[in-house]
Design a protein that fits this description.
Shape: globular
Order of helices and strands: HEHEHEHEEHEHEHEHEHEHHHEEEE
Mean pLDDT: 92
Radius of gyration: 23 Å
CATH topology of the largest domain: Rossmann fold
Number of strands: 14
Structural class: alpha/beta
CATH architecture of the largest domain: 3-Layer(aba) Sandwich
Helix content: 40-55%
Low-confidence stretches: 1-24
Strand order of the largest sheet: 7-6-8-9-10-13-14
Length: 376
């Protein structure tokens, strides 16, 4: 009897040891996304891309140990973002988190920096997101880049010189206003109205009246999510007939499907989803097969953000180094470029990617590419 018990104890100990070893090898990363509330559409888009990158990494056994993504719902609010990142850092001990929304990013960046945890943004475009320190990276061009590419096109090629701005009163909207104030005069245009609204605003009849009074050629909407959808509908319902324009948030499928958004112009980073390189083709094919639709630019950004982690972590493991935020930063600085979906990407010194800007028009419920503006 005793030998049998002893053998069982040995087996149990071995099983426990193997389980602990497997657990020790698990790599956990976090995500701060709006999975509920008015911005949940974006949370779904972003998380679907990130989760596919995790699936691909695990299928390829790209890392020593299973990669797990822990998603925390911020509802796009800075307060929830702070609670979520503290949990991910202090309880889950993640070295790397995905962030979204300019307000959330600015709230969580100091916390991540103090803990030497890398935070990567693929959705917020506030210009000051380039100034949040070495541990905050952006895999999306910021609004200043989009506005500077867009304004000369509007003024010189479309003859849309008088611009009215409707913007949300947060870091994103404030940043876009600042960029328009400097870019428009330089291109021969004019900002004829700049109307701010609180983040929670859903009524735009009064704003529409003020826009009509300004007699603009084009109305730039610097907002996002459900608020932007409501603004588009209500501006049209209240007699604003001018061309609408925005940054990449107009790629939201809900906006593309709006009859009121037909003819709107907007900018995105250039992502060549028709490329035949292995990384792009695999993502495009697998995403379409799984979700029954083409990937959105935000979906691609969050796939790419996780892929950056996987590439860096794999190299650290190859070198026998622990996967910490500090080591991830050092390895990123030592890496010239990354093969991502749609492009080979390099990071600038401030942690932001450099990418050409594509100008699009909404037609037949989809985004039609018009032209590409490359950095000079």
């Amino acid at each position: 009897m005793f030998p049998r018990i002893a053998s069982r104890l040995v087996a149990a100990a071995l099983t426990l040891g193997l389980a602990q070893a497997a657990q020790a090898q698990e790599l956990r990363i976090g995500a701060l996304l709006a999975m509920s509330g008015t911005q949940a559409t974006f949370g779904e888009l972003m998380s679907s891309g990130a989760l596919m990158a995790v699936e691909h990494a695990n299928a390829d056994r790209a890392l020593k140990g299973k990669l797990t993504l822990l998603i925390e719902d911020t509802q796009a609010t800075p307060q929830n973002g702070v609670i979520a990142i503290n949990k991910l850092i202090n309880v889950e001990n993640v070295p790397f988190v995905l962030s979204s929304y300019s307000g959330v990013a600015k709230a969580i960046a100091p916390i991540a920096a103090r803990a030497k945890v890398v935070a990567v943004n693929g959705g917020g475009v506030g210009p000051d997101l380039a100034e949040l320190g070495p541990y905050f990276w952006n895999v999306i061009p910021l609004a200043n880049t989009e506005v500077r590419a867009f304004v000369p096109y509007l003024v010189k090629q479309r003859n849309l010189k008088r611009v009215a701005l409707l913007y949300v009163d947060d870091p994103l909207g404030q940043g876009i206003r600042k960029e328009l104030e400097s870019a428009l005069p330089a291109a021969g245009g004019e900002l004829v109205a700049a109307l701010s609204v609180p983040v929670a605003t859903q009524q735009f009849a009064g704003v529409a009246a003020r826009i009509r009074e300004a007699k603009p050629d084009v109305v730039y909407i610097a907002s996002y999510g459900a608020q932007q959808v409501a603004a588009i509908k209500q501006l049209r319902d209240n007699g604003v007939t001018q061309t609408l324009a925005s940054y990449g948030s107009f790629s939201n499928p809900e906006i593309l499907a709006l009859p009121e958004a037909r003819g709107a112009l907007f900018t995105t980073q250039l992502v060549d989803t028709a490329s035949n390189d292995a990384v792009t083709k695999r993502f495009v094919d697998d995403y379409k097969a799984k979700h029954g639709k083409a990937a959105n630019v935000y979906t691609i950004n969050y796939y790419n953000a996780v892929r950056v982690f996987v590439l860096l972590a794999a190299e650290l493991q190859k070198q026998g180094k622990p996967v910490t935020g500090e080591n991830l930063l050092a390895q990123r600085n030592a890496t010239a470029s990354f093969d991502l979906v749609g492009a080979k990407v390099s990071f600038e010194a401030n942690g932001t990617v450099a990418a050409p800007i594509q100008i699009n028009e909404i037609a037949d419920g989809a985004a039609k590419a018009l032209t590409v503006v490359r950095s000079k």
